[in-house]
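re: that chain from earlier
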Amino acid sequence: MPPLTPTNPTPSAQPAPQPTPTTMKLFSWNVNGLRAVLKKGALTEFLDATHPDLLCLQETKAKPGQAELDLPEYLELWNSADRPGYSGTAVFSKFQPLSVHNGFPDSIIQAYDWQPDRYGDLLTEGRIQTLEFQPFYLVNVYVPNSKRDLSRLQLREQLWDPALLRFLQLLDAHKPVVICGDFNAAHTPLDLARPKDNEHNAGFTPEERQGIKNLLSAGFVDTFRYFYPSIQRYTWWSHWSHARERNIGWRIDYFFVSSRLLPHLKSAEIYEQFLGSDHCPVGITLEF
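^ sequence. v structure.
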């Protein structure tokens, strides 16, 4: 086993443990405020339409008890930021994981210099969760934004991206990994509507793109590109200039899997039809 110290989940409702199903539907969605998306009715609409087995959320901006949820089918697992109304991740699972861990393990923390910057401390921003199931580890991640002035780009390049990759490789040495979330970066020119205009802007700098390239070089597979190598579709749109209506977007939300999970990967999709956030959900289906 990798050096993970499990943390106890803090669910509002705890379903009975279930065996791993033959088919698992996994979804990821940056909701840009869980309370806001609940108030709009968007999360309920999404759940009613898709019935996820596992739903990973990013940018929840809430702590347990701050969002009114009535999801008796799901175990709720939270990793909220210390700072109120900021960042945060959560996983809703129909199945009891073998273990749950929030944040990076001690071995990763000790290997890097995690000094706070002017925005705060990455280790207290609720940016990563790891759930272990029988066939794989699930990692839910909200990668730090490099900021418009690129003031967090060096942190991304020299700290977060290398630490995340090292952690995934540590997990992958023991069993396959599914990693999903908002990576705050488009990988190739195909992944945003206006690549030439954004070559040196946050989300499409060479350094951020290299972070994703390093994941792929390490054997992780971009599931959407696996099925759709040349289709241009997006997962995030700016609030400005009616970008979503005009489909001037970016693909910055991903599911990556260990390559040995490919025989079990049956689909990967982007769900642009679901509103409520500036991001839309993405999902994959696995069969075992």
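Confidence is low (pLDDT under 50) at residues 5-13.
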